[in-house]
Recover the amino acids of this structure.
C-alpha cells in the first residue's frame, strides 16, 4: 500500500512538473510576440502628422493582435501567420506614411523583431 501511494505521488509530481514547463513556454512565447510600442515615441521618431497618428495607431493595434493570434499555432503555421501579419502591416503603413517615414518604420520594425528573436 505504501509503495502504491509513493508511486502515485511520484507520477503526479512528474506530470505537474511537465505541465508547469509547458505553461511557462507558452507564456514566454506570447511575451516575445507582444509588439506593443509607445505610440508617442513612435510618432516622434517618424515625425507623424496629426492625421497619420490615429491611422498608424489603429494599424499597429491590428498588427499586434494578429501577432498574438499567431502564437496559438504550431511553428510552421505560426511562421506563415507572422509573415502574413508583417506583410499586411507594411502594406498599410506604406499607404499611410511617406517614403522617409516608411523607411524609418521598416528599420524600427526590423530592429524590434530582431531584438525579440523573431528574425
Amino acid at each position: 500500500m505504501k509503495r502504491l501511494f509513493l508511486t502515485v505521488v511520484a507520477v503526479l509530481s512528474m506530470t505537474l512538473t511537465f505541465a508547469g514547463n509547458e505553461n511557462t513556454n507558452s507564456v514566454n512565447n506570447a511575451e516575445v510576440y507582444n509588439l506593443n510600442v509607445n505610440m508617442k515615441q513612435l510618432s516622434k521618431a517618424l515625425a507623424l502628422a496629426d492625421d497619420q497618428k490615429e491611422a498608424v495607431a489603429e494599424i499597429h493595434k491590428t498588427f499586434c493582435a494578429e501577432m498574438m493570434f499567431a502564437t496559438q499555432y504550431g511553428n510552421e503555421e505560426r511562421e506563415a501567420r507572422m509573415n502574413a501579419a508583417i506583410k499586411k502591416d507594411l502594406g498599410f503603413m506604406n499607404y499611410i506614411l511617406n517614403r522617409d517615414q516608411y523607411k524609418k518604420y521598416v528599420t524600427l520594425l526590423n530592429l524590434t523583431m530582431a531584438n525579440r528573436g523573431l528574425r
Q: What stands out?
A: The mean pLDDT is 77.
